[in-house]
């Protein structure tokens, strides 16, 4: 194992070395030392400086190079190094990994590609949270939001009436900075606010205000952080809407846990209205947040694929240490869909969230020549009557892009554009239409892109079937048709809902397909939440509108929905581990939509599968009473750490030993010889006690185990009996043993076995099933993800062996 680790590490290090064009280039590196063995942070920092000094001529040079010393939640530092220095440090005693600090990206589109929703919970759709719970729970829970900062003047961050004093456990700060006065900004709601800029400035140079607005403080210039924070924990604000004159999605805005406290960690900064967050800064935020006493961390950003190994990713390292301290970390899954395997933030100790719609739409009526009617989607405020024109009049080859513009003014015209002509995105088409001085734009897209965006120009999105009709009518008209566009409406209870968004990142994980990611899906399309009035709602410079509430779409918006629910669970069950909370969310998630059919996944317009939505769509009410949970403590992740190549010494320095949890290294034990392990053992993480079950490369009969914990509430319970129901994946027989689990006051934990028997010839395709344990009241559901591999000559022997059973 030690050997294979060296190989593993040597590989990743040399890869990064070869990528450096010149050996003399310096970068910000992160040097990770595992769990903080030292109780005194100052001593830890001293040690870091000593270590860093070994690769510099003087201590002064080392000090210059150092960005952060991470010393609270874990041990490590970031510094500007050249490749030689990085290599030397990677071989130093106690160093677990050395890797470059990369830039992560926010998981919203620039509000363009996909837009528009509301977090008005006034509908009683099953994905929403009852107000009585929101008011009962969350009060002592502190949610840390790692994002672009905060606009503290938003009503979302006012104290809720009757809110108690700041929890005594809180050790964080509210720091002063540009246009940010802690005395005014922070209160019993917004209890902390800090910012991290060193990594950003080393990478991108000093903050440049001529380039884009920014503040050297926790103040939010981009809106993203204000939006996500208000979605997770925003106070209740009545009668809000997008655009005063449009009044879209009017209703009450509130976060999932409106009584929870908010701690803001600004790690993402504005460059041309795009958020950039460096890993050196992110790790500093983790280090502080773990020390400050947050209970939940909500992070809506990620490193784009290719994904990096778990040992060289700050989000992985930070969330691992958070998990050990009982802190839940919720990440967005990324906006890379609908192609498979581009899911981000795939760590086994955190939650990765996919995005789907709610039941709200913004239908927009279009009438041609007073007779032909179409129904699109948009945010049109005022009625428009104009001539309809084809894109070919204004753009070469009909491609609606600024680069294709003919020198013809479209003043007073509505242009009809097709996204598939030249493969044009909404933002490009809208900019081009504005450039031609058009009065409005009708943009035709495939059925798989259902959601409207906010725009500057009046913009209606039409599906390809209606768009084709409109184009036909236009081409057959002798005189230009007169088009009337009516103001968009806000309509609730659209069925089916939810629908997984086309851009939501899909599984399986490209680095660890042996456990399911994403974990769960949550609303994140056209979410209405708080917004800085100084930030243009479209994030386009020319947009001069000022709004306090804005629509945003993305897994960025889905993530804080889950964080809010996690805060409620944390408050109701303070003892539950992050894994127990995740299990409660996953096993109670639903896969059936409002039309009583499988939730759809757009992008493909088919029934969704676990790679689209993980265990399903979040159901906060059921999550509060899951019946059973698949719990995991640090010890349960050790097999995973072994499988990804850590050796025992390293695992010992990663794992936090607390009282009652000291195994004297006994459990920090990897199988020393994988070949001698018991027959049928899977050299993957199939036995990780995850609430979803994945078996890859199923060649012959294979058995895995799971352990469930009874957490049923209600005083009178004595004995609980759970029966199993199985839905087989195609071509696989699944046998669960035992068939019933009996829990009693003295036996609250049961282990069961799942045997997978392949009964088809197949290679390299995924099939899905499920296991549901039920006591007649609770339904504890786990998705099954199986990849049968029986079709090669080698594997056909395995298939025959199976047939003999
Ligand atoms: C790296 O930096 C060290 C210390 O400044 C210096 O001695 C060494 O020559 C540098 N190596 C390379 C390859 O730039
Ligand atoms: C800021 O950005 C502008 C535009 O990109 C550039 O012209 C200017 O030189 C930059 N200023 C600094 C101090 O970097
Ligand atoms: C909500 O606000 C709008 C516009 O400001 C106003 O016309 C309306 O009366 C308000 N509704 C309620 C219920 O207060
Ligand atoms: C566009 O047309 C206007 C008026 O016809 C003319 O003045 C202008 O020079 C043209 N611009 C280009 C780039 O052709
Ligand atoms: C079109 O937009 C570009 C920037 O996107 C701008 O530079 C150009 O001047 C615009 N042209 C017209 C005719 O508005
Ligand atoms: C299927 O099995 C063959 C033979 O054992 C193996 O080479 C191949 O990698 C397997 N494919 C997958 C997808 O696991």
TrEMBL record:
Gene Ontology MF annotations: serine-type endopeptidase activity
Q: Which GO terms describe its biological process?
A: proteolysis
Residue intervals of the Peptidase S8/S53 domain: 139-593
Which residue intervals define the domain Subtilisin-like protease fibronectin type-III in the entry? 687-786
Keyword list (alphabetical) reads: Hydrolase, Protease, Serine protease, Signal
Which residues are catalytic? Answer: 147 (charge relay system), 224 (charge relay system), 556 (charge relay system)
Pfam family, any one = Peptidase_S8
Q: Which CDD domains match?
A: Peptidases_S8_3
- Extract the InterPro entries matched here: Peptidase_S8/S53_dom (IPR000209), Peptidase_S8/S53_dom_sf (IPR036852), Peptidase_S8_Ser-AS (IPR023828), Peptidase_S8_subtilisin-rel (IPR015500), Peptidases_S8_3 (IPR034197), S8pro/Inhibitor_I9 (IPR010259), S8pro/Inhibitor_I9_sf (IPR037045), SBT (IPR045051)
Domain (Inhibitor I9): residue spans on this chain: 28-107
- Per the UniProt entry, the signal peptide is 1-25
Specify the superkingdom.
Answer: Eukaryota
Protein family? Belongs to the peptidase S8 family.
Q: What is this protein called?
A: Uncharacterized protein
Organism field: Cinchona calisaya
